[in-house]
Amino acid sequence: MTRHANLEFDIAGLSESIVWPQPPPDLADKVVARIASPDRPRPRTARFRVATAVAILLVVTVAMLISPATRQAVADLLQAAGVRIGLGSEPAGELGAGLDLGTPVSLDAAAHAAGFTLRVPAGHAHRPPDSVFLARSGEVTLAWSGDDLLPAAGSTGIAVLLTQHAASEPFYAEKVIGPETGVSRVTVEGESGLWVAGAPHTFTLLDPDGWVVVETTRLAANVLLWQVDGVSHRLEITGDLEDALSWVASLEEAS
Amino acid sequence: MEGRPLEDRDLIARAKNGDKTAFGELVRVHQGMALRVAYLVLRDHAEAEDVTQDAFVKAYRSLHRFRAEEPFRPWLLKIVRNESLNRSRSRVRRERLAVRVANDPVSGDAASSPETELLAGERRDLLLGLIEGLPLRYREVVVHRYLLGLPERETAQVLRIPVGTVKSRASRALERLRRDLAGRPEAIP
């Protein structure tokens, strides 16, 4: 018996108060019927919807670029830390090698070269990154492949991308959000951040010098953006917000 | 609720050989816990049912990857949780767990007075609120370990963390809950 035995007992007792879903009497029959039938594609037409969304996004992006008022309005709404996103293509060799993320390096080399304190998810719950990239700008990107819990996004083979770079000053990030994408303000490590859920999305950024940069994500995944201690973070992940925050909570200085 | 390893093993072997009825029996054995795992993520009964059905179908189609010497339930629950997390991806707001109203007795204790029921209900709501307020890594351990009643090893497998981490997180979570409860004037010693 532990020193918290009474509390453990109380929490276990809470289970009786929760209105749990009851198994419908025909659940097993439905499952058996489905596995007995040929493997049909799901009724949803995700591929079609994504293709449509991309087309719409391109149109909206152009509209945004020629409309300073609209651009400023969105910028005001979606102020966030600096974001740098490469153009997508098929992976070649090293995981993420086709994504224009920089030069593949070791984690130690990246930590040494970065002009800031590089952090990585720590603890047994997280694997070491499958690949590490260092961009000429000093930006470091870590990539993880998909697994049972976090599936890879599309054909990239990647489930999580964590990008960090020094941010001398915060700057505005505008986003064009697709019809299936939602943006929420969230608190991350005590700082204001953005959670961009759904896919896909195109980012239109204003860099510190005021130049407009249009870049498109290559993963149909969710993105968490935040800035803390002068470092901008971008976590692109195929999981949900709780997954993302779980990764954030495990960040520790790379040794 | 450790499952029925021997019976599971037999049913899995038959299911791998194409006996779909055997897999249907596995569904009946594990559907209750699978639904609860889905509900803890999705907080919606209908959606939990939908995801659980999908997860069982996915489990059947992945049976060839299941290692016979491993327990079936945590393997299945990992799939259920994964499917649930994927389904909830676009959500930001998390609904509270649905609880019975205070005057809806669950224990059949005829001796309980209305005052006792009220106090018990208040403490229950307080404790549930504190659990919901725990950081994710602690909350997950608490709900799987105590609300679902999974053993430490199974909790570790479902959450994909070492058993030692389950122990340490559970201990820290309970310590924090105990401290928070003690700080509340309405807490019962």
Chart the SSEs and their pairings.
The complex is a heterodimer of chains A (255) and B (189).
Chain A: H1 5-14, H2 27-36, H3 46-65, H4 68-77, E1 103-105, H5 107-113, E2 119-121, E3 131-134, E4 140-145, E5 158-166, E6 173-177, E7 182-188, E8 191-197, E9 201-206, E10 212-216, E11 222-228, E12 231-237, H6 241-249, E13 251-253
Antiparallel strand pairs in A: 1-3, 2-13, 3-4, 4-5, 5-12, 6-9, 7-8, 8-11, 9-10, 11-12
Chain B: H1 5-16, H2 20-42, H3 45-61, H4 72-87, H5 114-132, H6 136-147, H7 152-159, H8 163-182
Helix pairs in contact in B: 1-2, 2-3, 2-4, 3-4, 4-7, 5-8, 6-7, 6-8, 7-8
What's the short version?
In chain A, 26% of the residues lie in helices and 28% in strands. Chain A is of the alpha+beta class and 255 residues long.
Structure explained in plain terms:
The complex is a heterodimer of chains A (255) and B (189). Chain A has 255 residues and is α+β, with helices and mostly antiparallel strands. Helices cover 26% and strands 28% of the residues of chain A. Chain A has helices spanning 5-14, 27-36, 46-65, 68-77, 107-113, 241-249, and strands spanning 103-105, 119-121, 131-134, 140-145, 158-166, 173-177, 182-188, 191-197, 201-206, 212-216, 222-228, 231-237, 251-253. In chain A, the strands form three sheets. An eight-stranded antiparallel beta sheet of chain A has the order 1-3-4-5-12-11-8-7, covered by helices on one side. In chain A, a hairpin with a 2-residue loop joins strand 11 (222-228) and strand 12 (231-237). Chain B has helices spanning 5-16, 20-42, 45-61, 72-87, 114-132, 136-147, 152-159, 163-182. Chain B is an all-alpha fold and 189 residues long. The longest helix of chain B is centred in the N-terminal third of the chain and has 23 residues, at 20-42. Chain B has eight helices and no strands. Chains A and B meet through helix 1, helix 2, strand 7 and helix 6 of A and helix 2, helix 3, helix 4, helix 5 and helix 6 of B.
